[in-house]
User: Fold this.
Amino acid sequence: MLARLECRNRRWRIGLVCAEDESSRMAVEWALQRKFVNVVFIGGTEIVLADKRFDRYRSHISVVRAESRDEAACTAVRMAREGTVDILMKGLINTDNLLRAVLNKEHGLLCKGAVMTHVALARMPSYHKMLFFTDSAVIPYPNREQRVEQVRTIVRICRQTGISRPKVALVHCTEKVNGKIFPLTEDYVEVIRMAKEGAFGDCVVDGPMDVKSACSADAMRIKNIKSPINGDADALVMPDIEAGNCFYKTITLFSQADTAGVLAGTKVPVVLPSRGDDAMSKFFSLALAAWCCYGEE
Amino acid sequence: MLARLECRNRRWRIGLVCAEDESSRMAVEWALQRKFVNVVFIGGTEIVLADKRFDRYRSHISVVRAESRDEAACTAVRMAREGTVDILMKGLINTDNLLRAVLNKEHGLLCKGAVMTHVALARMPSYHKMLFFTDSAVIPYPNREQRVEQVRTIVRICRQTGISRPKVALVHCTEKVNGKIFPLTEDYVEVIRMAKEGAFGDCVVDGPMDVKSACSADAMRIKNIKSPINGDADALVMPDIEAGNCFYKTITLFSQADTAGVLAGTKVPVVLPSRGDDAMSKFFSLALAAWCCYGEE
Assistant:
């Protein structure tokens, strides 16, 4: 994925909001090395100007001063809205403070009618390819409309990163549709129908199925499930934020997963690392955000 | 845990319902080898009598014929109710069919006023000790009363397996209590209050916190969470069945976890393996069920 980004020979403009933390600066430095970004540091500019590592990238960076973190957030969001940065990234600022500026109805970054959702990506030794998943951070309990947009978004991002026909599993604890106990499963039926009718372009969407069936052909065979996913999912749509967050934290802690994440459904992709994310994960998130900037090809 | 079972020098009587499947027979054979069980095979008896491996355990096994799987289930449940078996285990019978007999209001195994819940146990290379969790299989969305019983049950089972002061983390995607968006978090506050007042005996109960914070002191420090769990949880109480099932399937598939599981809140522990479980996992479940038979000591 990274190699293919570099080949494209295009630089996306990142706005890093509050550059005071070391791991964010390290992540953007790596992205500068790989030549797929230019960086606008918004807030925390003194520390950037004093950081000798950035001297060699002088023609690819710029700084915008801000008196406070909130001012940095508002400035960054305004630049994104005006089209002078392509990607926003959270530095040393609370998620709440940055999100407040992003979500502002008048001056924020919400696209009209769009559903804001979080898409993440994991690479782990125990799975044979990258695995996308949504939503571990933003929508608590998706309703049908939000579910449709989650699927639309993850299909689009999978395709943007080069998966021509993504396999999307709608995850649930049971593979039986049962609207009485599990109302979500009825939404799944509707989403699958829409996918078959072409609402999301070329893709395979199936479920309900559990994480193991989605990602293991053996597990699927033992359970006697027939599905075009065939244990080879590219993406998991999680039933709710509890399952999504549980998956994200579990693979990070117990499965040596590298992860990346990006907020979608906004005018520009927003990288919102958690406090616990390291520089590598922030760097991967930047790469994912850069892919999100490309149209489908 | 196994070694300590053997030292006890006590045999619990297992009723294996429908002995036709190989991996269940293998699991009970291992348990016979380790000398902590006697086995009553209920249904599928011809195959057991023809299985030479059991010849050497003749004084520790018996067979009860059944005309059908449902008859086997009813007979097994009656024996459990009458106290002639101590543990039930599902063999080659659908979970639904066995549960129907277990849940029968008149002739079943429900204790009056008790909440039936599923408790599981994982051992994985990336965690330094056994990790209990509930509920990945039975209660979809626990209400406050069910939550209290889940905590009571998992604390009891932890203590029965030798953990004198279990640390129980109440898992949630956020560590902030917010009844408006996340009503569960208010139940957690109440459960923690009860724990502090001694309702569950000697134990530590805290939350809400995510899986990573519950099981990593580093993650807890980075997030600046102060908790007596301190990243060293013995048990995770999952917010709902979606998160529980997602955790269970994820660690099995992506973290090389060995797991065991048992149904609690019934007159005798019931081992209900999934179709995908191997003989080792069924054997571990038997060991866990045997522990559940001991009183707290």
User: Anything to note?
Assistant: The longest strand of chain A covers residues 117-123. The CA atoms of residues 212 and 219 of chain A lie 6 Å apart. The mean pLDDT of chain A is 94. DSSP finds eleven helices and eleven strands in chain A.
